[in-house]
């Protein structure tokens, strides 16, 4: 029996469902609102799980351009998912799973596979009931595990592709006992400078659209620049048929980590409990979030970190990295000032003027050859000037290529990825296409010609760390597991040569075949990792590598 059951004194075995929809415009912050609400329910002692239903026809975001969709968030069990799942994990600490992210593409693929197998016994396949039933089955997964299930529907109300999802949640709420599902609708209240007033009409139209497809919101969360005056709040309540205390203002925040405290102040968690008729409810313990806010707003210094990458025009492409750096700053009580530097600039210009003044350099992951020569130059600059360097995924591969070229004298060292892209051999491949690896107790095999989607080394894998290395000092253990997302890998046959030049392979896969971490032992902080540590970092539990990286940057800032 869950916390909820114990508190209200009834036999409660199934989760309560909260469906979060969006209206007026996209990118209002549904993911953040969902994550903050999950954190508030946790603060009251309830267990939660969050999931995302995306109406796009891609099977998953794995093959989408970062410019199109932002970063791809990888789960422990190897799912490539929407970046909102990163918010869910960062705010609740609950590890996301494959069953927490679904798209129209995956739903339709499953339905069509069943049809080809003959599972439908010759029936005509239709959106209702076959597609909607598939969505409903997905929503119900794990409903006996938690007190509250929060389901965010991607896109905005009125999108054609979203209609099967809206119909599915309408049916789902009807199938359940009364009072087991509620609907939270997130909209925009634009402020018109010329007339000096907030406009409620877009929200009214959005709710009208929602009601026309059979959904009635229980709570309105309204994004606005400032407070919602009482008059507008009453107007929204009247015309949208919600209670006045269920109109919640979601104001612009200086930091996303204010969200749980801000939403609590506005009464979001109370409105949710009232909608479910849970009374009395446990008092919230918000001390964790008060500590987080204190660390953000009362720093004791500042460090400047350069992120030298390929997708710097869109910060969402490196969302988790930016957040993990913030967490590292919180742990060290410093404000991290992140500057995005386009790696391609260094292919035309000298590195030094662009990177002087930074206390640390980070080179993130990415795909393709564009910008890589600039990333290698950034690694050289960090190595020669004793500036803390953190290479993640491709960033580690760049550090290895840099060491091979400039410490070993292998001038044509490079990656097989760039040769595959160009269609001819140009480099000595110190980084090669990963053709097989061990996953659990079986071997996975891949070819260069395989489909792009879902064929990488994905999910959590164990690694063994070398005693006496910098990373053992950072982690405090010799055995770790981290999340991966890559198709290319540093070739182990160059290990001895590179170690003789001073690059230490301080983390390996348990079978000793795949390099996971490299470091320079005669450098204050120079570490490259093949995995993505940013995916596991949380504001109340910063990742050890980011925590120590910012500590090293802080030490440099005090020397300057």
Keywords:
36% helix; 23% strand; 20 helices; nine-stranded mixed beta sheet; globular
Structure, explained:
The protein has 560 residues and is of the alpha/beta class. It has a domain at 299-559: Class I glutamine amidotransferase (GATase) domain (Rossmann fold, 3-Layer(aba) Sandwich). 36% of the residues lie in helices and 23% in strands. The protein contains 20 helices and 25 strands. It has a nine-stranded mixed β-sheet, sandwiched between helices. It has a seven-stranded parallel β-sheet with strand order 5-2-6-1-7-10-11, sandwiched between helices. Strands 16-17-22 form a three-stranded mixed β-sheet. The radius of gyration is 25 Å and the shape is globular.
List the helices and strands and how they pair.
Layout (H helix, E strand, L loop, with lengths): L2 H6 L7 E7 L7 H14 L4 E7 L11 H4 L3 E2 L5 E2 L2 H9 L8 E3 H14 L9 H14 L7 E6 L9 H13 L5 E8 L2 E2 L4 E2 L2 H12 L6 E6 L5 H11 L6 E5 L7 H8 L1 H8 L11 H11 L4 E8 L9 H14 L2 E8 L9 H4 L4 E4 L8 H13 L4 E4 L1 H13 L6 E3 H7 L5 E6 L2 E4 L2 E4 L11 E9 L4 H6 L3 E8 L1 E3 L4 H7 L1 E6 L6 E6 L5 E4 L14 H16 L1
Parallel strand pairs: 1-6, 1-7, 2-5, 2-6, 7-10, 10-11, 12-13, 12-14, 14-15, 15-25, 16-17
Antiparallel strand pairs: 3-4, 8-9, 17-22, 18-19, 20-21, 20-23, 23-24, 24-25
Helix pairs in contact: 2-4, 2-10, 5-6, 6-7, 13-20, 15-16
- Structural class per helix/strand content? alpha/beta
- The CATH topology assignment of the domain at 299-559 is Rossmann fold
* Fourth CATH level, the homologous superfamily of the domain at 299-559: Class I glutamine amidotransferase (GATase) domain
- Major β-sheet strand ordering: 13-12-14-15-25-24-23-20-21
The major beta sheet can be summarized as: 9 strands, mixed
Task: Please give the CATH class of the domain at 299-559.
Answer: Alpha Beta
Q: Assess the beta-strand content as a share of residues.
A: 15-25%
Nearest-angstrom radius of gyration? Answer: 25 Å
Identify the overall geometry.
Answer: globular
In round numbers, the mean pLDDT is 89
Which CATH-level-2 architecture of the domain at 299-559? Answer: 3-Layer(aba) Sandwich
Counting DSSP H or I runs of 4 or more residues, the number of helices is 20
Q: N- to C-terminal separation?
A: 57 Å
Q: What low-confidence regions span 5 or more consecutive residues with pLDDT below 50? A: 4-11
Proportion of residues in helical segments: 25-40%
How many DSSP-defined strands?
Answer: 25
